[in-house]
Write a structure and sequence with these properties.
Elements: E1 9-15, H1 22-32, H2 53-58, E2 65-71, E3 74-80, H3 88-95, E4 100-106, H4 113-124, E5 129-134, H5 143-154, E6 158-160, E7 162-164, E8 173-176, E9 181-185, E10 193-196, H6 200-219, H7 222-231, H8 236-248, E11 253-257, H9 266-276, E12 286-290, E13 295-298, E14 307-316, E15 320-329, E16 331-333, E17 337-340, E18 345-348, E19 352-356, E20 359-363, E21 365-367, E22 371-375, E23 385-387, E24 393-394, E25 405-411, H10 417-430, E26 435-439, E27 444-449, H11 452-466, E28 470-473, E29 480-483, E30 487-495, E31 502-512, E32 519-523, H12 535-548, E33 555-556, E34 559-567, H13 575-592, E35 595-609, H14 613-622, E36 626-633, E37 636-644, H15 651-658, E38 664-674, H16 677-694
Parallel strand pairs: 1-3, 1-4, 4-5, 5-11, 6-11, 29-33, 32-34
Antiparallel strand pairs: 2-3, 7-8, 8-9, 9-10, 12-13, 12-24, 14-15, 14-23, 15-22, 16-21, 17-18, 17-23, 19-20, 19-22, 25-27, 25-28, 26-27, 29-35, 30-31, 31-34, 35-37, 35-38, 36-37
The structure holds guanosine-5'-triphosphate (GTP) and magnesium ion.
């Protein structure tokens, strides 16, 4: 196996809206690098990157895959990410392992919400970007419109580095504005091309765009700008070096042209990445925390003490856990004893691999900057840092997206609970964007994730790997009960049955509190009509009743209770008797105080292309949602609404079908609000039914 130095590596992730052609592009790239001897297709399920059964069945990428190959004595490490928004966590993890992102845009669609998500994620991590317009072999394309829409969305730093001669079926020629040549690609799939002089009819367009590119490069650097003004041009070396730096410093986002499935333009893209994309050694500062939690800067350099980040974990049958890692400094070798500084545990490095999808090649070591995988780590999860024991560092955690949707599950077979819980826990370690938890209030196991497809795939893994089956049910809603007006009642508990009796008596006043204030108890007893030692029992009786609920078995909230009178019996009064009396008094007063049910309401933001606005807003209203506002964000509309949680079940699937996959939503808890009467009745009825079934 050839060895590479850090500056011979190019790590990049491919990011895009779903279906833009990332996997097809990667397939052509590794074919061109000689890693495969034929180009697989999505339709036949034969690509190297989408090797998973689910991916083949659905014809979409679900997992990040790692691929690599040699190009002109450089190692290109490619991470193919899924575009479907349910799997955005994969994108976020992948982006932590690379120095740049290749953003693919389909010429049939232009900038989509998924493109913007990728763009923003790259922006947040300070990653340079190169843009590729794909599918230029398709019919009915308007290349200029696509380019303009990218320019409009991402600003004036978006600059043409190529343009196609003629798009549509048979597309094979590109004007390259760096080399100032016409590149004619073979259409036999070999990816090969020849260079020719730019034809006369395209010369002036090419000159204009070449000048724009040079100016963009010159503008990115003061000393280059000076040279450019003085000499009226840049030398070839100055231009190339300037372009590299401009990409690295986010001053230029160059746009290239390809057709992935016909392998047109892709070999040139391999050159461009090798020559112009950043190497790990170009990244000057890498922020980490030292042993004492102090911020330090590491360098991607083999001479520094070893550090690495686990950016993804998969568990494979017959192999066990496979942890994908990016080595940031030093080198990771098989047999190394390292420290997992996130977990504070030692870790022995087993076999190391470089990957092309599922194909693994064993290697002895991975040097600073390189990407690969290691098997059978004992205590290491996605997002953890591994480092030399003598140079403890910890990299920032990966900022995975918060769960967006939830559902409840129940075991199909009794007795499987333990296995299910172990399986769900392991699946969370593998994929931190998935969370499961037993909700003791709802008495349901609630699983949450990024979308219904995400959860569907998680449950499939649960059944395949842990051999337990569950069924989904609608998650219960954590309703609350409260009151709308003041009331008073007496709670009296008196029992005389042989021996010692029971006696407790209290008068309670209930008043409503502002939403979110919870509970307040006031002891207004004077003259010892209830002895001080029984007052805590009165409060306890109320609190326990509030926990259990009065109307529909939901917690009571936002109530102030004043105990203002009562009586006691010298012999028969006890804490127990006062607790029961208070509980009875509370129930009576509560029912008199116009009780209502509250439901959780969520802030929902939906981002969609303008043409879907009407449908989305109509649907939100149908879900008892209130539209709070609308903003335009670039070419998209963002709708802000407040929607009851009970109406959001399976919302991500509805939104997807309503917008042909072109809309995304986010949600966060906002507040509790009163449930309309008819729905409250249903909730009460349902609670009664469940209680009867239980007893
Ligand atoms: N005509 C044509 N079709 C293409 C091209 N690139 C991709 N496709 C087709 O577009 C569809 C999606 O391609 P993929 O490579 O799976 O796209 P992707 O971006 O990896 O999709 P996700 O990973 O699911 O987001 C497939 O049917 C491909 O055959 C292209 O250059 N030309
Ligand atoms: Mg894909």
């Amino acid at each position: 196996m050839k060895t590479y130095k850090t500056d011979q590596l190019r790590n990049f992730a491919i990011g895009a809206h779903g279906g833009a052609g990332k996997t097809s592009l990667v397939e052509a790239m590794i074919f061109n690098m000689g890693e495969t001897n034929r180009i697989g297709t999505i339709e036949q399920g034969t690509t190297v990157s989408d090797y998973n059964a689910d991916e083949i069945e659905r014809q979409i990428s679900i997992n990040t895959s790692l691929l690599h190959g040699d190009w002109n004595d450089h190692k290109l490490n490619i991470i193919d990410t899924p575009g479907y928004s349910d799997f955005f966590g994969e994108v976020v993890g992948a982006f932590r392992a690379v120095e740049s992102v290749l953003v693919v845009i389909s010429a049939t669609g232009s900038v989509e919400v998924g493109t913007e998500m990728v763009w923003e994620a790259a922006e947040n991590l300070g990653l340079p970007r190169t843009i590729v317009i794909n599918k230029l072999d398709k019919e009915n394309l308007d290349y200029d419109a696509v380019f303009d829409s990218i320019h409009e969305s991402f600003g004036h730093k978006v600059v043409s580095a190529q343009f196609p001669v003629k798009v549509g079926p048979g597309f094979n020629s590109i004007i390259d504005l760096i080399r100032m040549k016409l590149m004619k690609f073979s259409t036999d799939g070999s990816g090969k091309y020849t260079e020719e002089a730019i034809p006369d009819d395209l010369k002036s367009k090419a000159d204009d765009l070449h000048l724009k590119l040079i100016e963009a490069v010159a503008e990115s650097d003061d000393s280059l700008m000076e040279k450019y003004f003085e000499a009226g041009e840049l030398t070839e070396d100055e231009f190339r070096d300037g372009l590299r730096k401009a990409i690295l410093n986010h001053e230029v986002y160059p746009v290239f042209c390809v057709s992935a499935t016909t392998n047109v333009g892709v070999r040139r893209l391999n050159d461009v990445i090798t020559n112009f994309a950043p190497a790990p050694s170009d990244i000057k500062t890498l922020t980490a925390l030292d042993k004492g939690g102090k911020e330090i800067q590491k360098k991607t350099d083999i001479t520094e003490s070893t550090s690495a980040l686990i950016f993804k974990t998969i568990s494979e049958e017959h192999v066990g856990e496979l942890s994908y890692l990016k080595v940031f400094s030093g080198a990771v070798k098989s047999g190394d004893d390292l420290l997992n500084s996130t977990q504070g545990k030692d870790e022995r490095i087993g076999q190391l691999f470089v990957l092309n999808g599922k194909h693994k090649n064993s290697v002895d070591r991975l040097v600073a900057g390189d990407l690969g995988a290691v098997v059978k780590l004992k205590a290491t999860h996605t997002g953890d840092t591994l480092c030399a024991k003598t140079g403890e560092v910890q990299f920032p955690k990966i900022a995975f997206p918060e769960p967006k949707i939830r559902t409840a599950i129940i075991p199909k077979a009794k007795g499987d609970e333990e296995k299910i819980s172990v399986g769900l826990h392991a699946l969370h370690e593998e994929d931190p964007t998935f969370i499961s938890q037993f909700d003791s209030e709802l008495k349901q196991t609630i699983i949450s994730g990024q979308g219904e497809m995400h959860l569907g795939i998680i449950l499939k893994r649960l059944s395949q790997k842990y051999h337990v089956e569950v069924t989904e049910e609608e998650p219960k809603i954590p309703y609350r009960e409260t009151i709308k007006r003041k009331s008073e009642a007496q709670g009296k508990y008196k029992k005389q049955s042989g021996g010692r009796g029971q006696y407790g008596d209290c008068y309670l006043r209930l008043e409503k509190l502002p939403r979110g204030e919870g509970f307040e108890f006031v002891n207004a007893i004077v003259g010892g009509v209830i002895p001080g030692k029984f007052i805590p029992a009165v409060e306890k009786g109320i609190v326990e009743r509030m926990e259990k609920g009065v109307l529909a078995e939901c917690k009571v909230v936002d109530v102030k209770v004043t105990c203002f009178d009562g009586s006691y019996h010298n012999v028969d009064s006890s804490e127990m008797a006062f607790k029961i009396a208070a509980s009875m008094g509370f129930q009576k007063a509560f029912m008199d105080a116009t009780p209502v049910i509250l439901e959780p309401v969520y802030d929902v933001t939906v981002k969609v292309p303008e043409e879907y606005m009407g449908d989305v807003m109509g649907d939100i209203s149908g879900r008892r949602g209130k539209i709070m506002g609308m903003d335009s964000e670039g070419k998209f509309q963002v709708i802000r609404a407040k929607v009851p949680l009970g109406e959001l079940f399976k919302y991500s699937t509805s939104l997807r079908s309503m917008t042909s996959g072109r809309g995304i939503h986010n949600r966060a808890f906002s507040h509790y609000d009163e449930v309309p009467g008819d729905i409250a009745e249903k909730i009460i009825k349902q609670a009664k039914k469940e209680k009867e079934e239980e007893s």
